């Protein structure tokens, strides 16, 4: 994103400059204007946008690095790694989580967000869900497991977005790595055995059927969770 596209930063006093600039950068990340995986603007551009000196900008960016929200890559720039410190903490916890733990968490979150999405979805949300459902179906026409995982994750994230609750979106983004690792065992084979449940989930949300959307999630995840619990 070009920072010039958002409202220019107002002038501020020297004693608050670093805190002020850091807060501006946090908001760019929190809002998603600087998306996870995206390179942030270069130092000179940030200095022009904020009206702060380059030393202050550099210190503000370093504060983001220390918080785990961005990382510097030599010769490439600085990239967003998490939307919040919560998301970063969850990302660090993911590698030690068991499949059962991941499924239990997803069962709780996906059920709640599906029901809420059915109550709050807009026409734009429904269009996005249907487009991503089609992408998910197409992903099973080829053997690339990474695309199947990405397509499934994108669809479920769109359900979360349809809640219009930023905290749910932030939480989901922090858990994406865990959810993707849980999916690795479920996208092999030639047949998409969960196609019907996903289609019915989208239609329940589109129809405003909160209880129906929750039931579709339960139908989708309960057998996987029972299997994981049995294996413990």
Any overview of this molecule?
The chain has 232 residues and is mainly α. The chain has 2 domains: 79 residues, Orthogonal Bundle (Arc Repressor Mutant, subunit A); 145 residues, GntR ligand-binding domain-like (Four Helix Bundle (Hemerythrin (Met), subunit A), Up-down Bundle). It contains 10 helices and 2 strands, in the order αααββααααααα. Strands 1-2 form a two-stranded antiparallel sheet. Strand 1 and strand 2 form a beta hairpin. Helix 5 packs antiparallel against helix 10, helix 7 packs antiparallel against helix 8 and helix 9 packs antiparallel against helix 10. The longest helix has 22 residues.
**How do the strands of the widest beta sheet line up side by side?**
1-2
Number of helices: 10
Structural class by secondary-structure content: mainly alpha
Query: Termini distance?
Result: 46 Å
Helix proportion range = 55-70%
CATH topology term of the largest domain: Four Helix Bundle (Hemerythrin (Met), subunit A)
Give the domain tally.
Answer: 2
Q: In what range is the share of β-strand residues?
A: under 5%
Order of SSEs, N→C?
HHHEEHHHHHHH
CATH homologous superfamily descriptor of the largest domain: GntR ligand-binding domain-like
Rg measurement, Å: 20 Å
State mean pLDDT (0 to 100 scale): 86
The biggest sheet amounts to: 2 strands, antiparallel
Q: Outline, from the CA principal axes?
A: elongated
DSSP strand tally: 2
CATH C-level of the largest domain:
Mainly Alpha
